[in-house]
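Run folding on both entries below.
>entry_1
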Amino acid sequence: MNASEALVVAVFAAVYLGMALGRWPGLRLDRTGIAILGAIVIYAAGAISAAGVLAAIDWATLFVLFGLMILSAQFAACGFYDLCSARIAASAAQPAAILALTVGVAGTLSAVLANDVVVFAMTPMLIKGLASRGLDPKPYLIALAGGANAGSAATVIGNPQNILIGQVGSLDFWEFSRVCAPPAAMGLILVYLVVWLVWRRRLLQAAPGAPAPVPAVDRFGVGKGALATAALLAMFAGPLPYVTGVLIVAGVLLISRRLATREILGLVDWHLLVLFAGLFVVTGALAATGLPATLLAEATERGLKPTSLPAMVTITLVGSNTIGNVPAVVLLLAVLPDLPAEASYRLAVLSTLAGNLLVVGSLANIIVVERARQAGVTLGFAEHARCGVPITLASIAAASAWFFARTTLGL
């Protein structure tokens, strides 16, 4: 190993340690900052060229993610997510039914509009509505994050890691949903059952009070977003590349007499886009050293198959809950760039469901906890884990059974 390769390995280790810790001790440098700094160090040291930086970044994935953020921002700016949250909290049903609504709405919206944006928008209004009725928001927040994660596994546009996997593997939208929607649906059911069982005493004791007023919504804007979503799904059924269809829809949505461009772009998660770009550069530089390929070849010679179902379950569970499921998928795709379709489906579903284990397992979990804290509700690590651990173990087992059945029975 020469000096340049040693530097790349050291920077890679430091960056992914930062992904695991969430920040470097003593500094207010978060995951995005760490990824950017790692890419800068590698480039400044000459370990990767300017052309290499551009080649390492998967621009198609970033464009698709950006376009979907614009689509989701259309709904957020028009008050759609606030309306959904308020309607859930204002339901005349009993707490168990409100819990089911939370899981179902979060899962359904996340399958089409990306889970991170959904939970970011829904969390504050859901807390406000539940508090006005005297209901403890904690089980519903866990259900919101868990439902958003599980539901997002159903489609190739449900979350950032699925978008990346779909782009790298050139996966068909509808075939992806045919394969991945069943384990996602099982995950939604398990989220509800586990949260209900863990919190049933608190839920049974709750006596819902009067609901808060339902906020106004820009019906025209929501209708425009719904038409854009329908058009996008129709494009996915045709030969048009994902990135082209998504950018066309994003461009049309930016043409508005009611919503300023600055307002829409302000709702885009630029931090996530930059995080992706930084990780692409760091993992691309590592892949260019040839070390991952060498380690993979040695593992294969010893009978270890990283794409096997047991190995992928272990890798996604550990990776998602140490460095996070997005960085874990970026790393795995750098090491395993030519995954077959079936392995890609497994990686998408398992890495997403594994994110429910701990708060740090997915960005959606972190967003819910942080947004709740800003609203005066503290959802602790242990409180989340009481539900997150059984939810994840049960849903991973169900998903594994599904993929095993597909292999053996040809489903």
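>entry_2
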Amino acid sequence: MTENPTHPTTPMPPEGYVPAESQVPGIVVFAPQVKTADQDHAVSYACPNCGANIAYDISAGGIACEYCGYVAPIMAAQVGKSAEDYEFTLETLAQANRGWGTQRQVLHCDSCGGELSLSTGALTTSCPFCASNQVNVITSLEETLRPRFLIPFKVSPEDTAPLAMAWLGKGWYHPNALHANVIVQRFTGVYLPFWNFNANVHASWRAQVGYQQTERRYNPRTKSWETHTRTKWVWENGRVPLNIDNLLVPGSSPNHLNHPILTQLYPFQMGELTAYTPDYLAGWQAQAYETTLTEAWEIGKKTIREQAKQACHQKIRSTQVRNFSMTADFSDEAWRYILLPVYLAAYKYEGKIYQVMINGQTRKVAGGKPVAWWKIWLAIAAILTPGGFLTLVGLPLTLLGGIGVFAIVLGIILFVVGVVISFSLYNHALKSEAG
């Protein structure tokens, strides 16, 4: 360590390192110097022929000008599942590039607080998260990590209308006044941030496992042999290896984006991961991560532990388990910061905000739709009426003998079946409204 000429008692940091806050008095700590965004070499997108703004065109597979027909292919390699990942070290985070690698603006929503990155010169009047018109453009900050990989959009904006119309047409219990065109016209193509984790896990479990045992005993009171069944509890243990590959954790805040709806768009075809270049973002919106790497990894570990717990239970030969405990040892943890293509739309109906999303790669649609609850209650009444009617009719008929008992029994059976169907219908409607 070189001596600091200004303060001889303070050592000079190694190249690429800067002093960092120390938790121990008298101890000097150094951390890798954070790499700043290279704004001097930021890419701008103007057509070399006519000077108009150019954008990434899905059908052309490159950046194109809609005015003069200029097309330039994007020279980015498709790396798929072999995309490089990174260890959880300070050096890795410090050496990562920052910003988008191009000049972009930030659209800020005053209503929900959501932010999206826009191409310079792009205009938008509403927020795709909450459908609010209270939006404004602010200066883009270049402090977040730069994505290393993305999956380009495969679904064109023109394809979103028929996909949304087909999805909206499913379900008879939605309001007749829900106009599909209002929703269809709101779709915005956005590259959403995701943390992508890989790890090896070895889960060790221990539990009491119950096995049914049948034995015959002689009953001296009845002077006969009787069969008895009892549960025998046995302590067992085991070890289960688990390989976690391409676990996705959204980088968007759940305050702005409905994560249960987003996860319904899974899976993405990770074999189409491509090296990041700002060209793919030309003319498109993108979002920087709001959930940090550390926060995302904590979420990821909870998901992995739950997967490990399920894997352990699958190894147990009985469904009767008690006093279950498990420890999970992680190794070879690695991460990637990637962008995935999603079309977003938000609309308001009777004061409530609903979100709809389309997987920009696989065309899968998910979202929330309002429910006309009067239709649900009428349907439930129609389902329960036959059973209730037969039961009521059967009561006076019991005076005539067996026919009344038969009607009551049949009525009770139909009523119970109706309750089960009604409960399922009610839950299905709730899930449809929540997305």
